[in-house]
Amino acid sequence: MSFRFYTNAISHASRGIATAIFIVGLLLIGFGIIIIALPELFATLAAIVFSIAGAGCLITAVKIFLAQRELDKFGSDDYQDYRNNVHIHIEEDHNI
Predict the structure, then answer these.
(1) Which of 82, 85, 60, 61 minimizes the C-alpha distance to 73?
(2) What is the pTM of this model?
(3) pLDDT digit string (tens) for 21-33?
(4) Could you give the CA distance from residue 28 to residue 20 in angstroms, rounded to a whole number?
(5) Where do the structural domains in the chain lie, given as residue ranges?
(6) For residues 81 and 79, what is the distance between their CA atoms, to the nearest angstrom?
(7) Distance from C-alpha of 96 to C-alpha of 93, rounded to nearest angstrom
(8) In the prediction, which pLDDT does 6 show?
(9) How far, CA to CA in Å, does 30 sit from each of 21, 33, 37, 40, 81?
(10) What is the distance between the alpha carbons of residues 58 and 2, in angstroms, rounded to a whole number?
(11) CA-to-CA distance for 85 and 44, rounded, in angstroms?
(12) Residues with Cβ < 8 Å from 35, sequence gap 6 or more?
């Protein structure tokens, strides 16, 4: 009678992980060979990706600057301008 420290489920999980790592390794080797064979194409693709990401960052930064500018305009006005006819009532109950 043999004594096992792990179950069959762990064996299947480790085989699945090994299979995934093997496939990722093959894909990485394939991408490496394609990059060696066609460096101009991948340099162009990388340039396009970086340009699009840079444009997205610029657009986001401009939106943040414009929003901050609007908040600064709003904050520089007198606080009472947008609080007309607003009164805070506090009921004090001292019978506790």
Answers:
(1) 82
(2) 0.48
(3) 999 999 999 888 8
(4) 12
(5) 8-83
(6) 6
(7) 7
(8) 57
(9) 14, 5, 11, 17, 66
(10) 64
(11) 62
(12) 42
- Give the integer Cα–Cα distance in Å for 30 and 28: 5
In this structure, what token pair is assigned to residue 28? 């990485």
Cβ-based neighbours of 72, under 8 Å, separated by 6 or more: none
Is the pLDDT assigned to residue 84 strictly greater than 70? no
Q: How far apart are CA 14 and CA 20, in angstroms?
A: 10
Annotate 12-74 with DSSP letters as a single string: HHHHHHHHHHHHHHHHHHHHHHHHHH-HHHHHHHHHHHHHHHHHHHHHHHHHHHHHHHHHHHH
How far is Cα 89 from Cα 96, in angstroms, rounded to an integer? 19
Are 72 and 65 in contact, with CB atoms under 8 Å apart?
A: no
Residue 80 banded pLDDT, cuts 50, 70, 90: low
CA distance 80 to 86: 9
- The position carrying tokens 């305009």 is 73
